[in-house]
Amino acid sequence: MIVDIKVPQLAESVAEASLMSWHKKAGDTVSRGDNLIDIETDKVTLEVTAPNDGVLKEIVREDGSQVGSNEVIARIDTEAAGTAKPAADKPSGKSANEVESDDAQKQAGSKNVSDDKPDNTKLSPAVRRLLEENHLDAGQIPAARDDGRLTKEDVLNYLKAHEQDNTNKQTAGSDDKPATSAKPALPTGDRPEERVPMTRLRKRAAERLLSAQHDNALLTTFNEVNMAPAMELRERYKELFEKTHNVKLGFMSIFTKAAIEALKRFPVVNASVDADDIVYHGYFDIGIAVSSPRGLVVPVVRDADQLSFAEVESTIRDLGTRARENKLTMEDLTGGTFTITNGGIFGSLMSTPIINPPQSAIL
Fold this sequence. Notes:
- This protein is α+β, with helices and mostly antiparallel strands.
- It contains eight helices and 15 strands.
- It has helices spanning about 95-115, 125-135, 150-175, 200-215, 230-245, 250-265, 310-325, 330-335; strands spanning about 1-5, 15-20, 30, 35-40, 45-50, 55-60, 65, 70-75, 270-275, 275-280, 285-290, 290, 295, 300, 340.
- The strands form five sheets. It has a four-stranded antiparallel beta sheet with strand order 1-8-6-3, with no helix packed on it. Strands 5-4-2-7 form a four-stranded antiparallel beta sheet, with no helix packed on it.
- Helix 6 packs across helix 7.
- The longest helix is centred in the middle third of the chain and has 25 residues, at about 150-175.
- The radius of gyration is 27 Å and the shape is globular.
- The protein starts with a strand and ends in a 23-residue tail after the last strand.
């Protein structure tokens, strides 16, 4: 039986998506649940898995293609066997002993390869992206997990250790050289450049930023706030809070609760603009800007006014973790009546963020 592999249903605001790299090729045997390809949208990266065991009969849309919801991108034959067949039918001109020896060597070689190198088809999108960006081979990096699966932390630890080794070598080399007067560096030899296409997320973010500035009359105001009472409150209860709720008491829950009280007093700030209409929202879905490997994303804390401080902190922590692991869904990023972004975590003293349309304001 032939089974169609289709693009998952995309959000209403997402017209199309981009196919990334196929992890399988036509003729490969696949098992149910195998990741066949990653699909990148304006907001998230989705994994398309095999719905049945069988053979990947046909790849309809190639890497980099633009696709829409429910579009067929490949087909699986659930009754076919794999294309890999033993080459015993062809006479090799070798004796039986020589053939057995060659087979043993091949098996040993394939075992070593599979033991030493993680299976790239089982790597998460975040890990694959780190490997590609840093031109790394997964087989060079030791995995901390018992099952040998490579994680994002393994790659980051490897990069950190590698960077430290390079720094030590440079320091050691500089100690052996006599001190000379510093001269301005002049460009010599090759001056390489690399042109890399923008991801859909970055491209869409650029479009939205330009659109927001074009369609909105932007006004930024700065106000000083005495944070001493909040800092004292946090310092007094942080240990008890963490012991009771198993989550740290941060400032984001305080900012969120304070913003909601202000939105209740000034409903127009919690409203959205729709053509010539203003839509007043009777609920408070607060978007929290989070940094991820793919760029800045804004997952939404639903009905934040009905959550306790601990529930707000837990939700933000969960969304931040899933953003870094590239596991956010469309639902996590859709909607939102007001957004909070904290530029202070990047060392900023002040910042002027752009409104997240169709919202009215951003803190």
